[in-house]
Structures are given as structure tokens and as C-alpha cells.
Amino acid sequence: MTAQLIDGKAFAARVRGQVAEHVARLKQDHGIVPGLAVVLVGEDPASQVYVRSKGKQTVEVGMTSFEHKLDASVSEEELIAVIDQLNADPAVHGILVQLPLPKHLNEDLVIGRIDPAKDVDGFHISNVGLLGTGQKSMVPCTPLGCLMMLRDHFGSLSGCEAVVIGRSNIVGKPMAQLLLGDSCTVTIAHSRTRDLPEVVRRADIVVAAVGRPEMVPGDWIKPGAVVIDVGINRIAAPEKGAGKMKLVGDVDFSSCAEVAGAITPVPGGVGPMTIACLLANTLTATCRANDLPEPEGLTA
Ligand SMILES: Nc1nc(=O)c2c([nH]1)NC[C@@H]1CN(c3ccc(C(=O)N[C@@H](CCC(=O)O)C(=O)O)cc3)C=[N+]21
Predict the structure, then answer these.
(1) N or C: which end of the chain has fewer CB within 10 A?
(2) pLDDT value at position 44?
(3) Could you list the residue range(s) of the whole structural domain that residue 201 is in?
(4) Tetrahydrofolate dehydrogenase/cyclohydrolase catalytic domain location, by residue (predicted)?
(5) Is 229 in the pocket of ligand 1 (CB under 6 A)?
(6) 79-114 confidence digits (pLDDT tens)
(7) Could you give the number of structural domains in the chain?
(8) Burial (CB count within 10 angstroms: exposed 0-12, middle 13-18, buried 19+), residue 181
(9) Closest ligand 1 atom to the C-alpha of 96?
(10) Which residues carry a binding-site annotation for NADP(+)?
(11) Residue 99 Cα: closest atom of ligand 1
(12) Residue 289 lies in a domain
């Protein structure tokens, strides 16, 4: 392997340390304790693990964690009532509704009900529009985490050729907006892109966010390019024993690491940064709600 490894786990620990310092100061100087509410509908075991680790890290940085676990059969009215209650609660500065929701619930309607100022996922259309027009907004956690790692690596991203593979509302599109905001030349590639390998070969920055295990091989990567792997795919790992599973990204790590200048691993790359940025966003929302200066280096 020739690429430098971008250690998202260590980076996330540093971000949480910075958040914890700010939280301690907020408490000491202003008597304010940031609160993050997570709403989980249904019993998906993977979601439960994720919600548990979020709750643990929220408390570790000194914030208050609120968890609302609702039955999978909850009605839209009941879910909306919970959101209204969290919107009105001054102890709650951030609200996250775990996605995806069960099919009978309208995600756009539910997300649209969250007070945009408390929308720490940055999924509300007000925040999407603010980001798209370069205004102050809540920024989706995964793209924000990727941006932090890229800024740390490059210093300035100005003039870089960036290719984002994937056009989702939660990663691809906001990632492209953030890169554009940092003056990259941005291409959004997707399943219908003609000659994807040639498009990716132009890139100084490749962000892979498609959800297809190991789909980007090393021979698509320009030598020295920086590869950010957003994918978290659980696949069979017969080499580890019958029935065993492993986590892999959207890029083929071993071949890409032979060519890239730097690369994020899976696990231990973008994933931990997503949770760290959720805490950073909760801190930012708390500062804005109280007309206090925002933490430096923790926002877009
Ligand atoms: N409203 C909403 N916002 C989200 O941000 C959101 C969501 N819904 N629904 C579910 C997905 C999933 N997600 C992950 C975050 C971190 C890791 C993470 O830290 N993964 C570890 C590995 C964990 C393991 O070993 O399973 C890593 O990549 O190193 C994984 C998954 C956020 N999500």
C-alpha cells in the first residue's frame, strides 16, 4: 500500500474532544447543556446499534441524550406529535429521526415537520435550500465529515477536480454543494454516467457514495488522488469462516490504496466522522439558538 491512510476514527475522536471542550465552556459560562433527541421507529437491529452508540457518545461529550423509541406501527399523527413536542422543548437543541422510516410513514412530511434550526441531519428542505445557495444552514453529517477530512488533508480545496459518485439527497448532492463551496470543479456521477472510469480518472478527489460493495477499482484512480469511501456494506466473508460477514466500502480498498495519495478505510473512516459531526451540529445548533459565537472548525 502506498496511499496515506486517513484515520477517520482518530479524526472523529479529536472532533469529539473539541466538541466536549465547547460543551464544558457553555455549561460553565452560560449554564447551557446541549440536548440531542433521537427518534427511532421500529426495531431494525442495525439501527438500534447505531442509535445506542450515538447516545453513548452524546453523553460522553457532556450533552443530554433523549431517545424516543416508537413502535413500527406508529401512526404519522403520533410521530408528528413527538416531533412537535421536541420542537417546543427548550432542552432539545437537535432532533434526528432515524431513516429509513417504515413504508406507511411519509419521510418528506416527517422531516419537514422538524424545526429547521434543530435539524441536525440537515435534511429539511430549508436547510437543503440554504446550503444550495451558500447560506448558513445545518449541513448533513456525512458530507460534513468528508469535507473536514479533505480540508485537513489539502489545506485548501480550491481548484481541485472532484468527482462524487452517487446522487443521493443525504450524501451525493450535499457533498457536491460543499465541494463547490470550497471552489472545487465538481462532477456528480451516477448509474447512468457514460464512461464512469474515464470520469473518475480526472479526479483529484473521489467521493464514492453509491452503496455498491467495492465497485471502484484502483485502475479508475488517478495516481495521487484522494479517495473518500462513504460506503458501508456488509458482505459475506467465507474466508473468515462459514456464515461470517465483513464490512467493505464502495471502493476496492487494496487496489485503490496502491494508486491513491490518501484513502479512508471502512470501517474506521467516514462512519465515525458522521457521528462526530452529528455532535458538532448539535453544538452549532445550541450556539445559534442562544446567539453565541459558533465553534470554529466544526462547521462548513
Ligand atoms: N437520520 C439519519 N441520520 C443518519 O446519519 C443515519 C440514519 N438516519 N440512518 C442510518 C444511517 C447509518 N449511519 C451510520 C453512521 C455511522 C456508522 C459507523 O460509525 N460505522 C462504523 C462501523 C460500525 C460497525 O462495525 O458496524 C465505521 O464505519 O467504522 C455507521 C452508520 C448513520 N445513519
Answers:
(1) N
(2) 80
(3) 141-271
(4) 6-121
(5) no
(6) 999 999 999 999 999 999 999 999 999 999 999 999
(7) 2
(8) middle
(9) 1
(10) 166-168, 232
(11) 8
(12) no
